[in-house]
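During the second half of the funding period, the structural biology subgroup turned its attention to how the target accommodates small molecules. The most pressing case was pyridoxal-5'-phosphate, which had performed well in the primary screen but for which no bound structure existed. We therefore specified the complex as follows and requested a full 3D prediction, including the ligand pose.
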Amino acid sequence: MFYISTRGATDRKRFCEILLEGLAPDGGLYLPESYPQVTDATLERWREIYHRQGYAVLAYEILSLYIDDIPAADLRALCAKTYTAEVFGTGEIVPLRHLESDVWLEALSNGPTLAFKDMAMQLLGNLFEYELARRGDELNILGATSGDTGSAAEYAMRGKKGVRVFMTSPHGRMSAFQQAQMFSLQDANIYNIAVKGVFDDCQDMVKAVSNDLSFKRKYKIGTVNSINWARLLAQVVYYFAGYIQATENNSQKVSFAVPSGNFGNVCAGHVARMMGLPIAELVVATNENDVLDEFFRTGVYRVRGSADTFETSSPSMDISKASNFERFVFDLLGRDGVRVKALFSDALGRDGQFDLSREPAFTQAAARYGFVSGKSTHANRLDTIRDTWKRHEVMIDTHTADALKVALEHRTAGIPMVVLETALPVKFAETIVEALGRVPVRPVKFEGIENLPKRVTVMDADVSAIKALIADQCGY
Ligand SMILES: *Cc1c(COP(=O)(O)O)cnc(C)c1O
């Protein structure tokens, strides 16, 4: 399997070459040269595998179609080590819970940080450790977080050989729970850096360090952001597992509703559908930051400025642009890299938007690719959380509530609608209290974490200070 860039560069790369990379050198995102096709017989075999051997073996089956530069036995072992009941709470790893008639919740948030990003990040941690050992190399991950991504990365990389994580976050601005989750990690390779400033200051520092190419090279600086192909690939697996659990045979179709921000999660659904998984619709749900809903309704993709990017009660979907969206547009436009480059590099840079409404391809977004969309507001979120609690005694988090709200607008009789549960309510307790007047239960392993000793360095938003810290800790 070879990987190509969405912006038309002609070099082809293997999986392990792009594993530790971010963007392709031409600024595009990597995609496989073609999507392996899953026949009915294969899907039947995978159904058996999931039921009899479990999620990790299913993951191996799917990953092995895309990864041919890691020996099969090693890849199998990496999957087995990643997807365990111990790490993800249940043997099913992503159990399906029935809500009502054709509506189901797929639990993706029982990993170490209680959000779906663990599904991919835990695998990434093991892949990084494996590949770095093979190369005899090291990697220093530098990132900025306002919550979820940073903690998922830290829990995935803690204790991993050859990897250090330097994670900046805005000092005093994360919830007490989020701070405790990250800062209580005592692993020597995890560095929490609380920056006196806001999230943008953190991001600016990370950019400034990455733009210093000689520093970046000398200190082996990398990232784990959501455009990483390995993360997306790991997510493809739970669409298959969700489908298998929601159906009895392969003649049935299933729709998925996905709370979306950077389009990483639902893009994995698109890949599964392109492989032949019988998905009827992919329901893209946004919050007030409705870049994606606007596109699927109108054909106009319009990046928001910071004044038009809202802080909402489903904060992990608060985005100004959807970084993985370019992958879908590449497929939509018949994999024409030159056109994708013109849209994402030239038009977006110049006008902050592009318009595909007159493209025949755009009208096929729904018919050919299954995409539909909708949005949800704070009031909708509260209503959905309340309604779900009242009718089913099921407590859902704010992001899942956005997806459920939009899912209910797109139901088709007889087709199971699987809503992806992307976080547990305890992570967003304030809004749950607002909706229900009660505090969500906290998994036992997180009881009292606010009282644990914290390991964090507080610093000014000063690029030279963070460079000094990295240099000092690397010692080379
Ligand atoms: C990251 C995240 C999302 C959005 O996923 P994308 O892949 O960015 O679309 C939704 N819900 C939660 C809880 C998240 O952490």
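Two results from this model are relevant to the next phase. The two ends are 36 Å apart (CA to CA). The longest strand covers residues 163-170.
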